[in-house]
Design goal:
Number of helices: 4
Helix content: 40-55%
Radius of gyration: 13 Å
Distance between the termini: 22 Å
Largest sheet: none
Shape: globular
Mean pLDDT: 82
Structural class: mainly alpha
Length: 89
């Protein structure tokens, strides 16, 4: 496991959803981005019924443990718009 494990990778590894669910959610995310909107993949998976609230929380908690020194930072990936400014590391 790396210190930069992606949300979808964690969801699949934990058995919460299938890779096809992730592909569908990423396609939806790209479609929204082309329209100038940004939505986190976790929210898309939740809306699509691929994961439930407790699974979303479990994944987010896991992601937070990967960067315990920066609990305010969630890596949205290269080129993704930031929902709020982050201080420089």
């Amino acid at each position: 496991m790396t210190d930069r494990e992606l949300f979808g990778e964690i969801a699949v590894r934990k058995g919460f959803c299938k890779r096809g669910d992730i592909r569908k959610a990423l396609c939806r995310q790209r479609s929204l981005r082309r329209k100038g909107k940004h939505k986190l993949i976790g929210m898309i998976l939740l809306e699509q019924g691929a994961i439930d609230n407790s699974q979303l929380i479990s994944i987010l908690r896991h992601m937070q443990t990967l960067q315990p020194d920066r609990p305010d930072v969630i890596d949205f990936g290269p080129g993704a718009p930031r929902p709020y400014p982050h201080p420089a590391p």
